[in-house]
Amino acid sequence: EIFFAPRQLHPTALQPSPCHKMNILSYTGSAMAIVWTTMRKRERKKVERLMNVQKRQKKMIGLKAKLYHKQRHA
Known about the structure:
The chain is mainly α. About 75% of the residues lie in helices and about 0% in strands. The protein starts with 10 loop residues before the first helix and ends with a helix.
């Protein structure tokens, strides 16, 4: 099973290049996939848990902001 690492970990993948953008993207993607698969399972779990927590926090912040605005404009 191949896990694709989140793009945040790879700044070069996000840099735009006019001519062969897709090539670079797919290359860095596969490179990251290789790194990702060689990571120990425990490490991978740790990273995944971290990402999940971050996602949850982002969601919470978004919800709080929404609520705040709703109250402001009630």
